[in-house]
Structures are given as C-alpha cells and as structure tokens.
Amino acid sequence: xxxxxxxxxxxxxxxxxxxxxxxxxxxxxxxxxxxxxxxxxxxxxxxxxxxxxxxxxxxxx
Length: 61
Known about the structure:
Elements: E1 2-4, E2 7-14, E3 20-26, E4 31-33, E5 47-49
Antiparallel strand pairs: 1-2, 2-3, 2-5, 3-4
C-alpha cells in the first residue's frame, strides 16, 4: 500500500464478480477506483480491500 498524505492506494476485489483493481482510500475510510469510475461492470460493486502485508507465495484472499 502506498500512502500519500491523507490518501493511500490498495488493491481491492469486487465481491460480486471477482475483478481486482486499485482503489484510492481516504482517511475517513471511503474509497473509489483509481483513475476510473469502476474496474468492473457490476451495477453496484461491493469492493473489499485485499490484505496489505502478503508474503511472497501467499494466496490472495
């Protein structure tokens, strides 16, 4: 995860379709896809922030 002042970036996964993309997260916890309105075609995606400290060889959640 990269921190930039009060914003940070992280990988996120859509719980509906499984698409993975990068989101920007603000200090209050709100998040949105970075540089786009969505990284999947779901009408109302439920995004889950993926684990931040995976070791090499770990499976993604």
